[in-house]
Design goal:
Elements lengths: L3 H15 L10 E8 L10 E6 L5 E5 L5 E7 L2 E8 L5 E9 L4 E3 L2 E2 L8 E3 L14 E6 H6 L17 E2 L19 E2 L8 E4 L2 E2 L1 E2 L4 E2 L8 E9 L12 E6 L7 E10 L7 H6 L7 E14 L3 E21 L17 H4 L8 E6 L5 E3 L12 H8 L17 E22 L2 E13 L2 E5 L9 E4 L3 E4 L17
Parallel strand pairs: 1-7, 1-8, 6-9, 13-18
Antiparallel strand pairs: 1-4, 2-3, 2-5, 5-6, 10-17, 11-12, 13-14, 15-16, 17-18, 19-20, 20-21, 21-24, 22-23, 24-25, 24-26, 27-28
Length: 482
């Protein structure tokens, strides 16, 4: 029988082997530089080690004939750089922070001395990125967690980047986690021109370029918003490249829990509803979850897991529509010749398109009566089926003549499980995403007499009208946790 750790290692190996085809998409960082002596001459064969401070992993390399060292792909995180060469003092530079898709450069000048002596760099200018020409912004986990987002939609954070806008900010706030609306317009490009990546894997919903999956905010390490000059591996997109990276475990155990509670009892009424004398719009929104990560084997094997649930109920409300009046369904449109029906003192004469005189003029239908023989079979079948196309509740033509109640409820559960194996010169990770969502909507006919009353939603007592008439529609609002 395999031990649990051995089994996990085999799963990781198989998962990464199968996923090698997607490795070209970058979710890592890079670091390079030149090692010289005090005269500016290249130091060949110097040992350079980048140590991941949080995971204890060391990434070694040596300088080439030009004194250049390079770490082309290492995980994002905090690093300490150590440079050793025979006849020179060892140089240690801590506090290096590498972000996703960053190619940082740090040049090192060494002093003559014994290898056992060391020079610790305690202050340094900002990390330069001279190896790429791409332009963009990095949104860190601190910014992600501390920025108030009404629906915890990480895509809304793209609006913090320069050159990014949207004509409809409210589209980011619908709470739908899969294929949710709201996409940024980057440098004047269309919202469909963006590319969404999650840990380097394509995260685009294919039909309209929406996001396929929105991860838990607390689970995001950072994401890079590339707005211009993206490198070749991100090709085929004119807009922005939104590259999201999920957190990984470290040698320390960390976790958090959260509950975002939204309820109309805590809200003020908006000015528009106040002006109309309407109560606060009903709301039941509970978003909750947590994260936890740490080590399985110190400095080698790590895990990270997160969960987020959403319970969003939209209580029953009444809406209106206009359907075909009853006489029209039998071809009688004579009421269109009555100015009081059409309104504004106007009438509407209907003409027969199949009866045209020599001058091209169509003959009017006498008294606006259209023979049923001219009705298409599809129209006849639709108008005769009141289940598919209901009858009106009054005789209105230009104003609503049908009323119905509607309600919706979103129940979503999602989570990520990520395990990573850190080793010299290479790192492997496997991530599993699970998501389940249900959002049924309910519509039901409202009796005709309700049209004369102004509807108000009273969340705790169901559906109620200003005139204190209580309709028995058989439909009650689904509720979330209160």
């Amino acid at each position: 029988m395999l031990k649990p750790v051995g089994l996990l290692l085999r799963i990781l190996f198989v998962s990464v082997s199968l996923g090698a085809a997607i490795y070209a998409q970058e979710v890592s960082a890079g670091l390079t530089g030149r090692v010289t002596d005090q005269t500016g001459g290249a130091i060949v064969g110097a040992s350079v080690t980048a140590k991941d401070v949080d995971r204890g992993t060391e990434w070694p390399t040596k300088t080439n004939e030009d004194g250049i060292y390079a770490f082309p792909r290492i995980p994002v995180g905090r690093y300490e750089l150590k440079v050793e060469a025979q006849g020179f003092k060892t140089v240690v530079q801590p506090g290096i922070v590498l972000q996703v898709n960053q190619r940082g450069r740090i040049d090192i000048q060494m002093q003559v001395g014994a290898v056992t002596e060391s020079v610790n760099v305690t202050s340094e200018g900002p990390l330069l990125q001279t190896e790429t020409t791409q332009v963009g912004s990095v949104i860190s986990s601190r910014t992600i967690v501390n920025t108030p987002l009404i629906s915890r939609n990480p895509i809304a954070l793209t609006l913090l980047a320069p050159g990014v806008t949207t004509p409809d900010p409210s589209s980011f706030n619908n709470g739908v986690r899969t294929s949710g609306g709201g996409r940024p317009y980057v440098n004047g490009n269309r919202e469909e021109a963006n590319n969404f990546l999650l840990d380097g894997v394509d995260n685009n919903q294919v039909s309209d370029n929406l996001t396929s999956y929105q991860p838990n905010l607390d689970a995001i390490e950072e994401f890079k918003m590339i707005t211009n000059n993206a490198s070749a591996e991100f090709g085929n997109f004119q807009g922005g490249i939104i590259n999201v990276v999920i957190k990984s475990g470290t040698n320390e155990f960390h976790g958090d829990g959260f509950e975002y509670f939204r309820n109309d009892k805590l809200n003020a009424d908006n000015w528009g509803r106040n002006w109309q004398g309407l109560p606060r719009a009903p709301m039941r929104w509970n978003q909750f979850g947590g994260t936890f990560g740490g080590r399985i084997i110190k400095d080698r094997l790590f895990f990270f897991a997160d969960y987020q649930g959403l319970r969003q109920a939209t209580p029953t409300s009444i809406s209106s529509a206009t359907v075909f009046p009853t006489p029209w369904r039998s071809g009688d449109f004579s009421n269109l010749l009555d100015p009081s029906v059409v309104g504004a003192g106007k009438t509407s004469q209907l003409y027969n398109p199949y009866s045209v005189d020599a001058n091209g003029n169509r003959a009017p239908f006498p008294n606006n009566q259209i023979p049923l023989s001219l009705f298409s079979p599809a129209a006849k079948n639709l108008l005769s089926n009141t289940t598919l196309y209901p009858l009106p509740v009054n005789g209105n033509v230009a104003t609503p003549n049908y009323f119905y109640s509607s309600a919706s409820y979103i129940k979503s559960d999602q989570g990520d499980l990520k395990a990573g194996l850190a080793a010299h010169r290479q790192g492997l990770f496997h991530r599993t995403v699970l998501e389940r969502a249900a959002g049924p909507a309910f519509c039901e006919h409202v009796p005709a007499f309700l049209q004369q009353f102004q509807y108000r939603a009273v969340p705790e007592r169901g559906d109620q009208l200003d005139a204190h008439h209580q309709p028995d529609t058989g439909q009650r609002s689904p509720r979330g946790r209160e």
